Amino acid sequence: MRWAGSAALFGVAAGSGVLFIAECLPPAKRDLFCKLPVVGNYWKAYEAKDEE
């Protein structure tokens, strides 16, 4: 179990990378990022600017 910390850190880094890349996809913005409790309003305002 000495590798558990490394595996967890790699998983967090990989997940963050995937979310960073998926941010530019409209379905990810609408279905995932806009539904976040605290920072979801940021993507709603950002999506409204794109539609103009």
UniProtKB/TrEMBL annotation:
GO terms of biological process kind: mitochondrial electron transport, ubiquinol to cytochrome c
GO cellular component: mitochondrion
A Pfam family it matches: QCR10
The protein's name in its UniProt record: Uncharacterized protein
Organism of provenance: Linnemannia elongata AG-77
Lineage: Eukaryota, Fungi, Fungi incertae sedis, Mucoromycota, Mortierellomycotina
